[in-house]
Structures are given as C-alpha cells and as structure tokens.
Write a structure and sequence with these properties.
The protein has 385 residues and is an alpha+beta fold. The protein has two domains: 181 residues, Efflux pump adaptor protein, beta barrel domain (Elongation Factor Tu (Ef-tu), domain 3, Beta Barrel), CATH 2.40.30.170; 142 residues, no CATH class. 26% of the residues lie in helices and 34% in strands.
Length: 385
Amino acid sequence: MAAKARHYFSMKVILPIFILLVAAGITTVLVMFKPEAAEVTPVRPVTNVEVIEVQPEAVQLSVKSQGTVLPRTESDISVEVSGRIIKVADNFRAGGSFSQGDVLVIIDPADYEAAVANAAAELANAQLTLALEEAQAEQAAADWAALGEGKASDLTLRKPQLTQAKARIESARANLKRAQRDLARTELTAPFDGRVLSTSADLGQFVSAAPASPIARIYATDRAEIRLPITTREAELLETKDRRQRFVRLEKANTKNSPVWIARFVRMEATIDPNSRLLYAVAEIENPFAPNSKNPEPLRRGQFITAEIEGRGLSDAYVLPRYALRGSDTVYVVTDADTLETRTVGIIKSDAEEVVITEGLTPGERVAISPVAYYIENMPVEVIE
C-alpha cells in the first residue's frame, strides 16, 4: 500500500511539469519560426469635390421684412356743434366709402337757424344805430360851426358815440358769421376720400361738441404705409448716397402665387425700438384699397404682407450658394495644386439661399461647394467636372 501511494504522488507532481515543458517548447518553436510581417504604408483616399469658379459681378442688395398695411391718414371725427342727429348717410357705416365733401351726418339745425336770424337782426340794429349816430354827428358839427366858439370837443362832435356804433357793427357781423358757421357745422362733411372704420353715433342720438367724444373713426384711401422692421445691420444695406427713388416689392404673407404690389421706399425712422432693438423702414403705396392699373387687386387695412426692400448696389461682389459657407465666415478654396485651404471672407449679406462676399476672394479662384466629411489643411482633392 505504501508503494502505491508513493507512485500516485510522484505521477501527480511530474505530469503537470511535463505538460508545462511541452508547452514551453512549442511556444519557443513558434517564436523562432514566425513569419515576418510586411510593412504597408496606408494610402489616404482623395476626396472628390465640386467647385465654383468665382467672378466678381454687380449685385443689387435687398432686405426682406414683413409688416401690416395701414392708412397713412386715420382720424377720429367729432361734431363741432351739439344737437340731435336727424339724418345719417347710407355710407356712414363700418366699411362704407365716401368722397371728400360728402355729408355724413346732419344735426337738427333749428336752433342754429334761429341764432343766425337773431345775429342778422342785431347787425341790422347796429347798422341803424350807426346811421343815426352819423347823422347826429353831422348835425353836431354843423351846430358847432354855426354857434360854437373855439375848438369843439370830441364828445360835442359825438365822435366816441360814432366809434361805439361802428364797433357794435363789427361785433354784430362777427356774431352773424359765428352763427352761420355753427349752422354750416350741423352738416358733418367728409374731409377726404376714404372709408368708415367704426361709428359710435346713429340717427336720433344727441351728440355734444366735444373732441374727446368722437362719433366715428375714418381713414383716407389715397395712400397706405407699411412699417417694416429691420436690424441695424440690414439698415446699412439700405443706406445709399444717391437720391434715386427706390422701391419695395410687396406680396401677401403665407400665400402661394400672391399678386405683387410695388410701393415706394419713403423713409427710415430715426429711432430704434427699445424693446425689440429694431429700426423701421417705411414704404408707401398709392390708392391701395381699390383695384387700378398699378395694383392687381385691392389691399385691405391691417393686411399682413411680406416685403423685399431695394437696397444699395455693389459693383464687385461674389455670390455663392449658402451651402458653400463653412462656419460663419469661411470657405474652402481649391488651389492650383488641387489641395484645399481655408479662406476667411468678408460677408455683407447672408440668407438661407446665398451669401454675398466682398472680401477674401480673387477672380477665377475655385471654391469647393461639396460636403467634406473630414478636413485637413492642404489635403489633396479631385475636382469633379
């Protein structure tokens, strides 16, 4: 039994050692006879790019904005004499059209006709008094010439009475004119061609001559203005030294195949809005609320429109598609050796479709417009024709 135990123990120790020796020998043989690896230099792929050969051109700058069509003249109208309305014109309703001089409202004129009659009577009395005073003054002068001695006083010759009589005539005439003016004001007439926006009085209503209580709001139809918000940078694109008339192209907002109206660029407001930090350009259009030869269809007060404002012109500028821009002010230029280099450019205008460049490019240079997956300065490229 003791001999078997010793044999089992020796086998248990020798077998693992044998296995380790065999594994070490195999590893040594593999290391000694391993094949040599071939050295391969990686080849960088050449990127294909499309290019645009840039040339300077004359560019007409423009600024896009949007605004609301509003009449240039819009007023509250009030009656100038108090009374009850006895007649209202058919067009004295919201949306009604009228011409300059049309009678919109008539106030009961009875009291004002009576006032005119009274003023006329007062004038007649004053004229009679003046005639009597003139006669008495002539008689007083004759009496003094016949009986008096020395120089007669003004009172003796009735000069103050004559002056008073003349003043009463002037006062009576003024009262008559005022009474006639009040009578004329019982008819409220339109001050211009326009439309009624809203009314607050109607037939049978008593109205007072109070500017703070208007009876209607009206607007003129001869001209409309559109205030167009722009940034201070966009305002620089509109600044020009020449005084030629510039125009604004108007279209309905969010409307396909919209008609086009042409308005005039009339002014730039001088104040920056403190809330939005924007300036306002103002366009003006004539006869906007009625169809005519210039306007394909009438505009409406309060209509929202988009606008393209004509700005200043550039003689040497480069126009590139917006996707040619890398970052905010960089493009990739393909050199004569067909490598890419980064170029910083001066952009005067940029929108979703194109950029206008004034600095950083020279005529004939090639600008890459294809997407570049990765970029390394002076990387080789192949130009796609």
